[in-house]
Amino acid sequence: MAIPSKVPLGFRELTEASGFAAANGPWFEKIDGDRVIRGFLPGPQHANALGIVHGGMLAAFIDSAMGTAVLHTLNRRAVTVRMSLDYLGPGRVGDWLQAEGEVVGHDEHMAQVRGRLYGPRHEVLAGLGVFSLLSRHRKLTRRG
Amino acid sequence: MLQDDPPDGFLRIDFDRDRPETTFNSHIGTLYAKRGAKGTRDEFVLGFRVHQHMCNPAGGLHGGMMMTVADLVGTMGGGTLVGLRKFLPTVSMTFDFVAPARVGDWVEGRAEVVRQTRSLLFTNIYLTVGDEKFLRASQIAKIPSGEGLSFGKARLDRSAAGAAAPSR
Lengths: 144, 168
What we know:
Number of strands of chain B: 8
CATH class of chain A: Alpha Beta
Strand order of the largest sheet of chain A: 1-2-3-5-6-7-4
CATH topology of chain B: Thiol Ester Dehydrase, Chain A
Number of domains of chain B: 1
Largest interface: A-B, 38 and 40 residues
Distance between the termini of chain A: 22 Å
Helix content of chain B: 10-25%
Number of domains of chain A: 1
Organism (chain A): Reyranella soli
CATH superfamily of chain A: Hotdog Thioesterase
Structural class of chain B: alpha+beta
Keywords (chain A): Hydrolase
Family (chain A): Belongs to the thioesterase PaaI family.
Protein name (chain A): Putative esterase
Order of helices and strands of chain B: EHEEHEEEEE
CATH topology of chain A: Thiol Ester Dehydrase, Chain A
Strand order of the largest sheet of chain B: 4-7-6-5-3-2-1-8
Number of helices of chain A: 2
Radius of gyration of chain B: 15 Å
Oligomer: heterodimer
Pfam families (chain A): 4HBT
CATH architecture of chain A: Roll
Distance between the termini of chain B: 32 Å
């Protein structure tokens, strides 16, 4: 598949996505040292009635970036228990949007993660999440 | 193939009337709404059937889908409860993911208005399967000054339901 030209250098498409992520993708990822940055290029299918990116899509995307930060930083899979989001500015259709997470605290069972989602001109969404860490021994079952 | 098979009283929400392209609310799947008697728990109920394309790799309803629907229940449902037909932009939301939902489940979402000020609407939102709550959310939405945009072009599609449709 041809990668849209607005995708910055170093991002790879998450081709293993299924279900909701696949239906609302493609999503891209770049690993930059300690950081994992996710990005996507919103189209009309991501828009709301105002023609800007739907808050639910932005929520889904920042959540995925914050969960990935847990995996990358702690090498543990995690599920979201709580997510708090503040909408700071509109996400524009056609603008490349990026999201990333930072693990700010954790113990054996839980991790606290700060997230941000931003466009080329301004911050779009600020997040604070609590993630439950899955057992190190548990295999993630994939269905479908 | 899994059918939506909505329970009695639910009508498909037509988000994109006269719009050339499908927007997110239609893209994520068919969403339904039911309007019950004023002041009752069912005054506004949003509903949908969980399909595979709404799920995560583990086979549960994706958190992003839960958040999208809860956002909509707060702005569209909460707005309806207080008699606003404007588009209410979301300012802030908090979600607690208390349980999963699975393919085939019929999900319902209800909003409770906590307080309405001149410029803000505070709501609590629950998503349920049967009697089980699986998502708790709280929302602050902005009430735009002036007339603002009406809630997109969303209308309940009465064409399929005929006389069974509840009146607004």
